[in-house]
Design goal:
This protein has 68 residues and is mostly helical. 76% of the residues lie in helices and 0% in strands. It has 4 helices and no strands. It is globular and about 30 Å long. It starts with a helix and ends with a helix.
Amino acid sequence: MSSKLEKALFEVRPYVEYYDRLKELVEKLWEEATTEENFIELLNAEINRAEEPFKTDLRIFLQKFEVL
């Protein structure tokens, strides 16, 4: 797992409601992704399918990940 992914997960932990579910999903997507851009595409696809409040957790993670 990349240090960027680990850092983003660490930083969003206090702000997300479903941290364990989020961590499991982003780690799975990271393994599937071929590039960082592909990872972001996969994450955006999950955001589009997700229901609130998990959708907000995913958005928070994506924002943090893109800033790093």
